[in-house]
Amino acid sequence: MKEILVAIWSYRHFIVSSIRNDLRARFARSKLGGLWMVLQPLAQVAIYALVLSRIMAAKLPGIDNRYAYVIYLMAGMIAWSLFAEVVARSLTIFVDNGNLMKKMAFPRVCLPLIIGGSSLVNNLLLLVAAVGVFVLIGHPLSVAMLWLPLLIGINLAFALGLGLILGVLNVFVRDVAQVMTVVLQLLFWLTPIVYMPSIIPDRLRVLLEFNPMVHMVIAFQDVLLYGRAPGIAGLTVIAAAASLLLLFSLILFRLAAPEMVDVL
Question: Of 25, 37, 74, 117, which cross-links 122 as Cys (Cβ 3.0–4.6 Å)?
């Protein structure tokens, strides 16, 4: 474990420059460039809001704002977008970079960190845009937003841990990426992002507790929508899950790394 951390620190400049190159490459020939990082999720929020706002707005208690459902949606999407992007891109990170891993000597663990850094920049830009929208529609900003760095850090750690495990497994069993694409879509609808948990029957609502992203999304909604501190119990659950996933992923990666290059 210490060797991995030392390697990451030694190659920190390589990681930073790779994150910069990744962001540039994604929008190299685009007229709007990095604006697409913000426009795409905002467009998705707008679509959901137009379709569902009349149904859901009346079921959102405690918020005196005609755009309450929009705020609810954006809070959930900020949490989900970081998690989903990191996991989705991590699924094929080693397969996509197989030639690079064979030709260039560098710590392989840098690859998921590059994805995590790039996704984090995207998410921070989306957060800034969301705050701007909140101001325009008259939603007050609160001191509870000071919780956001911790929430984003836990969310990123959870996504990286899960993504690294799946990325390693996908090297040996390529069906993992295909299956997880469907699972992520299902998980989105099993997370209260476009709907409130209160509309789910009590006997089914218990099942939401087994989805770690429920706690993460609710924490973001507490901070951004209600202006209050996130629930400690839920935050502890997701933080513990993130820590265990990161630890297990690093152990799995270290054990599998010698064979990965041969398989690729």
Answer: 37
Between the alpha carbon of residue 14 and those of residues 1, 21, 148, 159, 164, the distances in Å are 20, 10, 27, 22, 19
Nearest-CA neighbor of 90 among 153, 154, 167? 167
The length of the chain in residues reads 264
Nearest to 84 by CA among 159, 23, 19, 154: 159
Single pTM value for the model: 0.88
Q: How far is CA 243 from the centre of its chain?
A: 15
**Dihedral (CA of 104, 109, 110, 113) sign:** positive
pLDDT in tens, 132-145: 888 888 888 889 99
Q: Give residue-wise pLDDT tens across range 43-94.
A: 777 777 776 666 665 556 666 667 788 888 889 999 999 999 999 999 999 8
Report which of 34, 46, 116, 45 is spatially closest to residue 77, judged by C-alpha positions.
45
**Residues ≥6 apart with Cβ < 8 Å to 16:** 117
